[in-house]
Amino acid sequence: MRVLGLDYGSVTVGVAVSDALGITAQPLMTIRREQENKLRRTLAKIQEIAAEYEVETIVLGFPKNMDNTLGERCQKTLAFRDMLERRIGLPVVLWDERLTTWAADQDLEFMGVPKKDRKKVIDQIAAMTILQEYMDSNRREDGQDHTDVG
Length: 150
What we know:
The protein has 150 residues and is an alpha/beta fold. The protein has a single domain, classed as YqgF/RNase H-like domain (Nucleotidyltransferase, domain 5). It contains four helices and five strands. The protein has a five-stranded mixed β-sheet with strand order 3-2-1-4-5, sandwiched between helices. Helix 1 crosses helix 2 and helix 3 (100-110) packs across helix 4 (115-141). The protein is globular, with a radius of gyration of 15 Å. The protein starts with a strand and ends in a 9-residue tail after the last helix. The relative contact order is 0.21.
């Protein structure tokens, strides 16, 4: 069962995909568009990726404010979720993405990636983080988390 992770932004969508067992997430690509409201090609590309990887579920980052309120970006994300569900016909799960882009930037800095090069992959890494957190949470809820060896 593959799962697709998306980090939806104003002009980019970071994309990550799980392995076939739904255990690990890998960054895949960043989809760019010239204008925020031009989504037809973005949706078509996501549909193509979902079909290619035989995705069963899409996890979409939900950008709540730090105080847990829903701002303008959340409203745009909800509208994007509705478009995804209508176009692709797969369930779309919203996942709290607070600090994922910041964490991705920190990880890339730690790995020594120059700041100018981080922009190329940061959305993919954020999507990977969103997806990995979702899958880890599901494993813990199912009682399948075997990471505690102590």
